[in-house]
Structure to design on (367 residues):
């Protein structure tokens, strides 16, 4: 009986070719952004994010991550409310930002995930450089990339004025990966 | 004839320039701040508050220069016709006005820093932040900025009232010492 249970668990946790899959642990990580306001950088972050990263040997085989834009924390409650509104993330209609990898290249320490980023209903192919540190059960993922907010209609109407609200948004992420 | 430096009974061109330039900019700051603070979150609010912050830092620099100049160029003495308590009140009011100008601007700078809304000075350079971003501190500095500005406004009324009193009631020419022209027959 006990033997059968162990066997069952072993099968359930080892899906064929994907290797080992990990869950992104938001509690130990952060996703922050920086965008120029009136010429000076302004920082904020998203509290709620997660996803799955699968590794086979040294290769990353799958990245499937998401983020709740409604969890935005800019430190200014009024601004948070605006960021959830129709001019920015329209979180009522588009509650999730997602990134799904199509391929992941490895260049020494640095890796590059090519995939689809979907924000506010707009899907675009982008490359995200990142690093994978640690091994076995203690792994962390981190990286940074820049996107143009106007590509995803983040900040429409008067907020499309890039002199006062920069077009470039720098995103930084890091999180621990928890093995299944 | 107004000279560059203060004389015994008149402020010089430089002291007068500082006084009226700061006065004009401070009035503009009241208008900008009061207008922008009541706007809903919008591009206009970002624009006007950014100008308010940059201008406020300009006023702070100007006031510090002015205090430096004041240390070099002594203010003309108040006339003997003024009772001692009036002279003391005048000196105290002037000192407090200077102190509040500096403190209100500093509180505004601290507020902007703590809110994470750093200042780019009219596109010329980045103004350093005084403290790291902190939402609780931002609320505290916001209240401090408003309280100091309110106190300054109150004291400004006393200052203007006293100046006008020198024109209309005591007629001792004290206000004319700060005017660039010399009204005929008046001192």
């Amino acid at each position: 009986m006990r033997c059968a249970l162990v066997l069952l668990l072993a099968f359930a946790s080892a899906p064929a070719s994907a290797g080992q899959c990990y869950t992104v642990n938001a509690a130990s990580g952060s996703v922050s952004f920086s965008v120029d306001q009136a010429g000076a950088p302004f920082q904020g972050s998203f509290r709620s994010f997660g996803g799955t990263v699968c590794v086979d040997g040294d290769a990353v085989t799958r990245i499937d991550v998401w983020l709740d834009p409604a969890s935005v924390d800019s430190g200014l409650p009024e601004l948070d409310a605006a960021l959830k509104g129709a001019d920015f993330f329209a979180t009522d209609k588009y509650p999730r930002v997602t990134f799904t990898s199509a391929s992941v290249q490895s260049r020494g320490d640095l890796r590059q995930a090519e995939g689809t980023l979907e924000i506010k209903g707009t899907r675009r192919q982008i490359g995200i450089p990142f690093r994978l540190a640690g091994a076995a059960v203690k792994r962390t993922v981190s990286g940074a990339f820049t996107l143009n907010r106007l590509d995803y209609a983040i900040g429409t109407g008067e907020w499309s004025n890039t002199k006062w609200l920069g077009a470039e948004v720098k995103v930084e992420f890091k999180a621990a990966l928890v093995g299944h | 004839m107004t000279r560059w430096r203060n004389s015994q009974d008149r402020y010089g061109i430089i002291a007068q320039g500082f006084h009226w330039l700061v006065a004009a900019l401070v009035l503009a700051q009241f208008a900008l701040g009061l207008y922008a603070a009541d706007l809903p979150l919008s591009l206009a609010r970002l624009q006007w508050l950014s100008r308010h912050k940059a201008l406020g830092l300009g006023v702070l620099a100007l006031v510090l220069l002015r205090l430096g100049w004041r240390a070099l160029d002594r203010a003309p003495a108040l006339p003997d016709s003024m009772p001692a308590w009036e002279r003391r009140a005048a000196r105290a009011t002037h000192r407090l006005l200077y102190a509040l100008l500096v403190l209100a601007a500093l509180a505004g700078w601290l507020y902007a820093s703590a809110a994470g809304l750093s200042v780019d000075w009219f596109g010329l350079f980045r103004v350093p932040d005084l403290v790291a971003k902190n939402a609780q501190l931002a609320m505290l500095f916001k209240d401090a900025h408003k309280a100091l500005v309110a106190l300054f406004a109150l004291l400004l009324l006393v200052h203007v009232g006293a100046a006008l009193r020198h024109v209309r009631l005591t007629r001792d020419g004290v206000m004319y010492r700060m005017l660039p022209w010399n009204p005929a027959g008046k001192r």
